[in-house]
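RECORD TYPE: inverse folding
INPUT: structure tokens
STRUCTURE:
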């Protein structure tokens, strides 16, 4: 079977994108004139047809300096005309309430207008059933360079917001290579993909450009540090940096939080292991079709075995040098392993309970890695079949007997039903 084609950034069409509005051309005087105040009073009257109020104000011409930029920005934003008209009405009504044009609103005023959550927005404005009107107003504030502190707002669907700001086709063209690499690495579950798409959309919005080529490492580092309290967000920012390296947009990924830079981590991870063994492990890593998270964990165990071999059997450089006797010795060594033995896991994350014996499940898992990897290399023809990996690396029976079985509570009605079936 042919390997799937690796997504590349070259597949992203190079369509120029410039900020669609030049706010310098508008009259941004921070105070309202008497005639503007008079015209805005109509937006405070209850139970009025919003489209009619907006149309009348446009015809009167007293609010041209406020309505022209709003008309221009909503012409750029993708979406429905009724929602745009209602958004214009809401912004002008808030201008009347605040007594100032939206150009003069401070950060705190924009937070009050936009709401720090979807629920707060609807409580303040009660815009009826137009559930996306908040997204339109956020997009308008963003493109008018009035408000761009998106992390301060809760309940934003970032992908939909990015559609309105950048356009659906352009955004999807830039998301596609990132999602493609993400899926090739084994992160293909719906929830994970949706979370990554949302994060990338937010990154592009905060960067002020829909083009992934314009994402820089210092910018990602800034976002990573800003998300210190959001561990899942930091994890996805780190993964995004690795994906951008794969797409040849960045030269190196972010350093793991509290750990070593990626290149130094790789060097330290392989220290003390025979280069031939490291080369074999990397060859296996790039050949196997197992999901990426599983491959990473298995690679750490194979490198652990390489450290053990370097200390006890330095003459063994690849699996082709293994014998039944050596396999039996490995199984015996695994049975005596403790947390931290021959490990590189503490390079970036402190070990929990170092020195304590491995659990029976951990020993079984390590031997399972050896069974699977050795079986694969035999099937690929990388070594002769001198033994059966399923037998020589089998989990000893006494370890299997130590597996803990977590009992599941049985409801009273089910237990009563079982009892009625007894003779």
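DESIGNED SEQUENCE:
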């Amino acid at each position: 079977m042919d390997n799937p084609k690796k997504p590349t950034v070259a597949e992203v069409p190079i369509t120029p994108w410039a900020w669609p509005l030049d706010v310098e051309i508008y009259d941004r005087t921070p105070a309202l004139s008497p005639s503007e105040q008079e015209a805005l009073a109509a937006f405070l009257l209850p139970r009025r047809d919003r489209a009619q109020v907006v149309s009348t104000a446009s015809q009167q011409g007293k609010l041209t300096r406020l309505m022209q930029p709003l008309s221009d920005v909503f012409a750029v934003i993708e979406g429905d005309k009724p929602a745009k008209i209602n958004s214009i009405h809401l912004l002008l009504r808030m201008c009347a309430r605040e007594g100032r044009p939206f150009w003069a609103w401070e950060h705190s005023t924009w937070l009050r207008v936009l709401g720090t959550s979807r629920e707060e927005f609807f409580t303040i404005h009660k815009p009826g059933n137009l559930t996306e009107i908040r997204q339109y107003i956020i997009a308008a504030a963003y493109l008018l360079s009035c408000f761009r502190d998106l992390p301060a707002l809760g309940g934003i669907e970032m992908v939909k917001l990015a559609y309105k700001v950048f356009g659906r086709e352009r955004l999807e063209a830039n998301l596609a290579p990132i999602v493609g690499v993400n899926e090739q690495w084994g992160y293909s579950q719906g929830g994970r993909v949706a979370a990554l798409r949302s994060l990338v959309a937010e990154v592009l919005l905060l960067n002020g450009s829909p083009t992934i080529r314009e994402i820089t490492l210092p910018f990602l580092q800034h976002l990573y540090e800003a998300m210190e309290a959001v561990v899942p967000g930091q994890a996805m920012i780190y993964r995004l940096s690795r994906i951008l390296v794969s797409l040849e947009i960045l030269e190196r990924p972010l350093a793991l939080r509290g750990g070593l830079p990626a290149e130094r981590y790789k060097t330290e991870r392989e220290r003390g292991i025979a280069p031939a063994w490291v080369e074999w492990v990397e060859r296996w890593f790039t050949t196997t079709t197992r999901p990426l998270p599983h491959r990473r964990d298995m690679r750490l165990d194979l490198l652990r075995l390489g450290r053990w071999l370097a200390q006890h059997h330095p003459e063994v450089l690849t699996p082709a040098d293994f014998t039944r006797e050596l396999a039996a010795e490995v199984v015996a060594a695994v049975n005596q392993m403790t947390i931290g033995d021959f490990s590189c896991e503490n390079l970036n994350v402190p070990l929990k309970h170092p020195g304590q014996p491995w659990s029976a499940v951990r020993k079984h898992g390590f031997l399972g890695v050896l069974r699977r990897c050795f079986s694969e290399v035999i099937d690929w023809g990388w070594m002769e079949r001198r033994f059966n990996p399923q037998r020589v690396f089998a989990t000893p029976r006494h370890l299997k007997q130590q597996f803990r079985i977590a009992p599941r509570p049985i409801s009273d009605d089910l237990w009563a039903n079982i009892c009625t079936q007894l003779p």
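NOTES: The chain has three domains: 31-156, 166-260, 265-400.
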